[in-house]
Amino acid sequence: MDNKTIYSKGWPEGQEEGFIPVEGGSVFYHYYGKGKPGIPIVFLHGGPGSTGLCFFKQTALAEKHPVVIYNQLGSKGSGFADNITTSEEARQYLTIDHFVNEVQTVIDFFDFAEFMIVARSWGTMLAVEYAAARQPKGLKGIVLDGPFLNVDQWCSDAERLIKSLDKGEEYWQIVRECEESGIFEDDPRYAMVNEIYSANFNSRVAGANDGTPADPESQHTIPGLSVYNYMWGPSEFSCTGTLKGHDSTVLLSSIKIPILYICGQYDSGTPEAASLYNSMTPNGEICVLPGCGHNASRERPVEFNAVVGAFAERIME
To answer: Which of 62, 72, 211, 271 could tie 32 with a disulfide, CB 3.0–4.6 Å?
Structure first.
């Protein structure tokens, strides 16, 4: 099948969708494959503050598995409670501890006795934090796509990747100047570097995002609040938010279930980082998908789904 054309119509039919009450508000979900015999798969998106749209092509896994894709609190469609009206009030829920509890609330909502997690980018950090903190008996395996487990490692890789490009030293100087001045969106030079970086290390395959659907707007939003800026920061290349300096790799040794690291050949969650993390993982393995970047689930959905499906079978043997 052709990765460029296999999915072109957004969310397929046959889903259940709705809202799950969580602490601080509610989260919007898509549920496919109800009653299928395979192990249920719960997807954790990146960001923080992005949405599960990155996984819309993984609904194909619902041919054999129950599939849940949800948007974390503060992401599009997943609004805060009506009595939370200010950024200050909302931010108390934008913590790793909250999102770990939120994962458990979602699992409990669907009453999955056994399940696996597929996580992307920031979601990989969340998956590791959840598995280590909760040690859930029903969790049989984890897939970490474009792994983001150590903030300093991520930032170091971003600098290395930018500098590897033609004119890379010039691009990095622009990034540094914009970070020092605090001007990003209004500086066309920063926008240029961001676009070049994304084209090389985020999504390299033409048409990969074609057919990406839309989720509903949140019923209640907080003016001026950006989950991404608060937890990460305004620059793609360095962290100034609440995640600054965070390192989840110290938790890997406590997770004994199988972990599969997936990354694109040119992923900003680099193969080198995945190899480092895997060396700290008691029961880990790595898959590098050729020719793609950090958007592997949309760039190479056929291969991505095949790898995840095979992993699901192995962990249940």
So the answer is: 62
